[in-house]
Automatic annotation (TrEMBL):
Belongs to the fatty acid desaturase type 1 family. AlkB subfamily. Its main location: membrane. One of its GO terms (cellular component) is plasma membrane. This is Alkane 1-monooxygenase. It is found in: Cell inner membrane. One of its GO terms (molecular function) is metal ion binding. GO terms for biological process: lipid metabolic process. It comes from Psychromarinibacter sediminicola. It is a multi-pass membrane protein. It holds the Pfam family FA_desaturase. Keywords: Cell inner membrane, Cell membrane, Iron, Membrane, Metal-binding, Monooxygenase, Oxidoreductase, Transmembrane, Transmembrane helix. Residues 113-333 form the Fatty acid desaturase domain.
Length: 377
C-alpha cells in the first residue's frame, strides 16, 4: 500500500497533469493544418496505448485514509480544467473562423481533435467533479458538460446508472452481444428521458412539481443555451457548426467508454424486483498505468462503483478473483468496440468465463441478455 505521505507529493500527482499536453497539440493542429491534425489522437490514444505496453500495470493501491488536504495536487487539475477547456474550444472557434489557411475538411477534423480534449479528458474530469459534495466542484462539472451539450449525464449517472447498474433499468449497461453502434443510438434516445423521470420522481418525493426551479434540467438548459450562444457570438453560424462537431465527438467518446465499462455484466436477479448489491465484479477493471494517468484512474472502475465517493487518486485496483479484467486499456478497447465482430471475439469468451466464475448456479442467461427481468423495485 502506498502511504498517505507519498500519495500527497507533487511528484506522485504530476503524471495526471499530462492531459495539459493536449493544449499545445491542438494549437499546432490549428495553426499548421494538414499533417498536424493527427497530433491530438497520436498524443492521447496512441501514445498512452504505447506507454501501457511499455510500462505495464500499476497494481499498487493508495492508502484510502489519505486526507482531502493531502490530495491538493490531484484535485487542482480537475478544478482548472473548465477554464482550460473553454479557452481551447472558443479560442479555436475564433481562430478557425477568422483564418483563411484551413480548408473546410481541416476545420472539421480540427474540431474532432478539440472533441478529444473535451471528451477523453473533459467529460472524465466532469465525472470526477460531479461525484463530490463540494458545490464548486459540482458546478464546474456542470459547466464542463454544458460545453459538450450533455448536461443530463449528471442526473442519469448519479441517480440511475450508479443505483441500477447491471439491471434492465440502466441503459448504459451494454447487453451481451449488443454492438456499440446499436448501443450508441439506444442510449442517445433513452438516457435523456430516463434522467428526466429520475428528477421528476425525486421532486415528487419532496412534494414539488416537475417545473419547480429545483429541477436541474432548467439549469442544464440555460448552461447549454449559453454555450451555444457563445459559439455563435465568437464564430457565427460556422462557429456553431464547429462547436457541434466537437460536442458530438466528445459524446461519442463518452458512450464508447460507457460501453466498455460494463459490457455483458449483470447483477443477479433475486426475485420480487430485487437485485444483488453492486460489487466490484460488476464493472470491467483495467490497471494499465499510462492510460489511467490520462483517464484519472477511471479504469479502476470496479472500485468506483463499489465506492462512488472515493476520489480518483485513492481508487483501488482488484485482482481477477474479485473483478473481471480487460486485456488492454480503454484507448485500445474502445477502438476494438468500434468493430463489433472483433469486440465479440475478444470479450464474449470473457463474459462467459465471468458467468461461470461468479454465477455457476444460473443456467439460463437469456433474460439477462435481453433485459427481460423486471425493473428494480
Amino acid at each position: 500500500m502506498i502511504p498517505a505521505s507519498q500519495v500527497a507529493r507533487l511528484k506522485s500527482a504530476l503524471p495526471f497533469w499530462l492531459s495539459l499536453s493536449l493544449v499545445p497539440l491542438i494549437a499546432l493542429a490549428a495553426t499548421q493544418g494538414g499533417w498536424a491534425l493527427i497530433l491530438p489522437p497520436l498524443g492521447t490514444w496512441w501514445l498512452y496505448s504505447f506507454l501501457d505496453a511499455v510500462l505495464g500495470l500499476n497494481e499498487e493501491n493508495a492508502d484510502t485514509e489519505t486526507g482531502e488536504d493531502q490530495l491538493f495536487w490531484y484535485r487542482l487539475i480537475t478544478l482548472i480544467w473548465f477554464p482550460v477547456q473553454a479557452g481551447v474550444i472558443y479560442g479555436t472557434i475564433w481562430y478557425a473562423t477568422h483564418t483563411g489557411h484551413l480548408a473546410t475538411w481541416e476545420k472539421i477534423v480540427l474540431f474532432f481533435d478539440v472533441g478529444i480534449l473535451s471528451g477523453t479528458v473533459g467529460i472524465v474530469y466532469a465525472h470526477e467533479l460531479l461525484h463530490q459534495r463540494n458545490r464548486l466542484e459540482r458546478w464546474l462539472g456542470d459547466l464542463l458538460l454544458a460545453t459538450v451539450l450533455y448536461s443530463h449525464f449528471r442526473t442519469e449517472h448519479l441517480l440511475v446508472h450508479h443505483v441500477h447498474v447491471g439491471t434492465p433499468r440502466d441503459a448504459v449497461t451494454a447487453r451481451y452481444n449488443e454492438g456499440f453502434h446499436r448501443f450508441f443510438f439506444r442510449v442517445l434516445f433513452e438516457c435523456p428521458g430516463s434522467a428526466w423521470r429520475a428528477e421528476k420522481a425525486m421532486l415528487a418525493r419532496r412534494g414539488r412539481p416537475v417545473w419547480d426551479r429545483a429541477n436541474p434540467f432548467w439549469r442544464y438548459a440555460a448552461l447549454q443555451a449559453a454555450a451555444l450562444a457563445l459559439a455563435v457570438a465568437v464564430g457565427g453560424l460556422a462557429g456553431l457548426g464547429l462547436f457541434l462537431v466537437q460536442a458530438i465527438s466528445a459524446i461519442w467518446q463518452l458512450e464508447l467508454t460507457n460501453y466498455v465499462e460494463h459490457y455483458g455484466l449483470t447483477r443477479k436477479y433475486l426475485g420480487d424486483g430485487k437485485y444483488e448489491r453492486v460489487m466490484p465484479r460488476h464493472s470491467w477493471n483495467a490497471s494499465h498505468k499510462a492510460s489511467n494517468w490520462l483517464l484519472i484512474n477511471l479504469q479502476r472502475h470496479s472500485d468506483h462503483h463499489y465506492k462512488p465517493s472515493r476520489r480518483f487518486p485513492l481508487l483501488q485496483t482488484y485482482d481477477a478473483e474479485e473483478a473481471p479484467q480487460l486485456p488492454l486499456g480503454y484507448p485500445v478497447m474502445t477502438i476494438a468496440a468500434m468493430v463489433p465482430p472483433l469486440w465479440r471475439r475478444i470479450m464474449n469468451p470473457k463474459v462467459r468465463a465471468w458467468r461461470r466464475q461468479h454465477y455457476p448456479e444460473i443456467e439460463d442467461w437469456t433474460p439477462y441478455k435481453t433485459g427481460a427481468h423486471p425493473m428494480p423495485a
